[in-house]
C-alpha cells in the first residue's frame, strides 16, 4: 500500500508551484494526504473539480463531531471545523446578508477614490524616503490596513496591536498562541462595539449597531473576522503581484506602456502565484463520491485553488506570468455561495496599486535575487516577509 502524501509541499522558489503538487496534478484529480499535523484528508487539484466542489452543498466548514475532526494545522481560526453543523447554512446566509450591503457596488464606488488617494500618499512617502526600500513595509502592508480600518471603523493607530493579534490567530504551528490571539481580537471587537454604540460614525460597525436583532457579540465576531480577512490576504496579493512584475521586467514595461492592461494584470496577479496553501478546507456533510473516491461524512477535503489556477487544461502555459492573458475563471476568490465577499474591494486596491506604482517608479527593480526572498510559513496566509527594491 502506498503511504498518503505528507503536507505541506516543499516550495523552493516564491513564484513556483511546488514540484510535488504539479506531479500529483498530472496524475489524477483527488489524492489521499496527511495534513501538517498528521491527519487524514483528500486533496483536490483539478480546476473543474475544485470549482464544482466549492459550490457543492455536501461540503461545509462545520463537522458533526468537531473534537474528532481532521485538522489542517494548529490555527484556532482555520485549522479545524467552524460553526454549528446543524445550522451552518442558515448561519452563513445570515452572515452574508449582514455584510453584503457594505460591499455593494455603490459602496465600492464611493471607496475607490479614497483607496486611490491613500495609495498616492504611500507612494509619495516612498519617493521621499528614497531607495533602497522594502515595498512590503512601505505599501503592501499599510494600504490594506488603512482601507479596512476606514471601512469597518477601526482606529488606524491600533494597527500594531490588532495586527499582532491577527498574526497570532493565524499561527498554524502554535495552538495556544492562536487561541489567545483570537480571544484578544474578539475582546478588542467588543470594546469597539461598545464605543460605537456610544459614539457612532460612518462605518460598518456603527451601521451594524443600528441594525435590529444583531447583538454585540455577533457584531464583534463579524467585524473582527472581516478585519482579519480584509487585510491579511490583500497584503499578500499586493506583495506577490509586485514581485511577479518586478521579476519579469518585460511585463513591467508592458504595463508601463499599456496602462489599460491594469485590470487584466490584476486578474493574472490573482491567478499566477499558485497560492492556496494546502487547500481550502471543507468537511463532508454526507457520504458521496468524488471522481471514483468515496468520501465519508466528516472527512476533510482540501480544495487547492492554487493548483486549480495553474491547471493547463484551463490556462495555456499556466506557469508563465502574462498580463495580456485572458484570465476569466480563476478561483483566487473561490466560487459559489462562499465566493469572497470582499473580492470587489481587493480588486480596487490592487488596481489602485498597479495603476500608480509602475508609472510613478518606472525604473523600480528588485534589490536582491528572487530566490533570496523568504515566505511566511508560520501563518495561514503566507506571503512575503520583505520585498527589497531600488530605483
UniProtKB/TrEMBL annotation:
Listed GO MF terms: heme binding; iron ion binding; monooxygenase activity; oxidoreductase activity, acting on paired donors, with incorporation or reduction of molecular oxygen
Basic and acidic residues composition bias: residue spans: 60-71
Keyword RNA-binding: no
Region (Disordered): 60-86
Subcellular location: Cytoplasm
PROSITE patterns: CYTOCHROME_P450 (PS00086)
InterPro entries in the cross-refs: Cyt_P450, Cyt_P450_B, Cyt_P450_CS, Cyt_P450_sf
GO cellular component, one term: cytoplasm
Keyword annotations: Cytoplasm, Heme, Iron, Metal-binding, Monooxygenase, Oxidoreductase
Pfam families in UniProt: p450 (PF00067)
Family indicated by similarity: Belongs to the cytochrome P450 family.
Protein name per its UniProtKB record: Cytochrome P450
Protein source organism: Saccharopolyspora elongata
Amino acid at each position: 500500500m502506498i503511504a498518503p502524501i505528507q503536507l505541506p509541499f516543499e516550495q523552493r522558489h516564491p513564484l513556483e508551484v511546488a514540484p510535488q503538487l504539479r506531479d500529483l496534478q498530472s496524475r489524477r484529480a483527488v489524492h489521499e494526504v496527511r495534513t501538517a499535523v498528521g491527519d487524514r484528508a483528500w486533496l483536490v487539484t483539478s480546476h473543474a473539480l475544485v470549482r464544482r466542489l466549492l459550490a457543492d452543498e455536501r461540503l461545509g466548514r462545520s463537522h458533526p463531531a468537531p473534537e474528532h475532526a481532521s485538522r489542517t494545522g494548529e490555527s484556532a481560526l482555520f485549522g479545524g471545523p467552524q460553526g454549528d453543523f446543524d445550522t451552518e447554512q442558515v448561519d452563513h446566509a445570515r452572515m452574508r446578508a449582514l455584510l453584503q450591503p457594505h460591499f455593494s457596488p455603490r459602496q465600492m464606488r464611493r471607496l475607490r477614490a479614497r483607496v486611490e488617494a491613500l495609495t498616492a500618499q504611500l507612494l509619495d512617502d516612498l519617493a521621499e524616503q528614497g531607495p533602497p526600500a522594502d515595498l512590503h513595509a512601505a505599501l503592501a502592508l499599510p494600504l490594506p490596513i488603512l482601507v479596512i480600518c476606514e471601512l469597518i471603523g477601526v482606529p488606524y493607530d491600533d494597527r500594531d496591536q490588532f495586527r499582532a493579534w491577527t498574526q497570532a490567530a493565524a499561527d498554524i504551528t502554535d495552538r495556544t498562541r492562536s487561541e489567545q490571539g483570537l480571544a484578544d481580537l474578539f475582546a478588542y471587537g467588543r470594546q469597539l462595539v461598545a464605543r460605537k454604540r456610544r459614539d457612532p460614525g460612518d462605518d460598518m460597525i456603527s451601521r451594524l449597531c443600528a441594525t435590529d436583532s444583531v447583538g454585540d457579540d455577533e457584531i464583534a465576531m463579524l467585524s473582527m473576522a472581516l478585519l482579519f480577512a480584509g487585510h491579511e490576504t490583500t497584503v499578500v496579493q499586493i506583495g506577490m503581484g509586485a514581485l511577479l512584475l518586478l521579476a519579469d521586467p518585460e511585463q513591467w514595461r508592458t504595463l508601463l506602456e499599456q496602462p489599460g492592461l491594469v485590470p487584466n494584470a490584476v486578474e493574472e496577479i490573482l491567478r499566477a502565484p499558485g497560492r492556496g496553501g494546502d487547500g481550502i478546507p471543507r468537511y463532508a456533510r454526507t457520504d458521496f463520491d468524488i471522481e471514483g473516491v468515496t468520501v465519508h461524512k466528516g472527512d476533510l477535503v482540501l480544495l487547492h485553488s492554487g493548483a486549480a489556477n495553474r491547471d493547463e487544461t484551463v490556462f495555456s502555459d499556466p506557469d508563465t506570468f502574462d498580463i495580456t492573458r485572458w484570465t476569466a475563471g480563476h478561483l483566487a476568490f473561490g466560487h459559489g455561495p462562499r465566493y469572497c465577499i470582499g473580492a470587489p474591494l481587493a480588486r480596487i486596491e490592487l488596481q489602485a496599486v498597479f495603476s500608480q506604482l509602475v508609472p510613478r517608479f518606472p525604473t523600480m527593480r528588485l534589490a536582491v535575487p528572487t530566490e533570496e526572498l523568504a515566505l511566511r510559513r508560520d501563518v495561514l496566509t503566507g506571503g512575503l516577509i520583505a520585498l527589497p527594491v531600488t530605483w
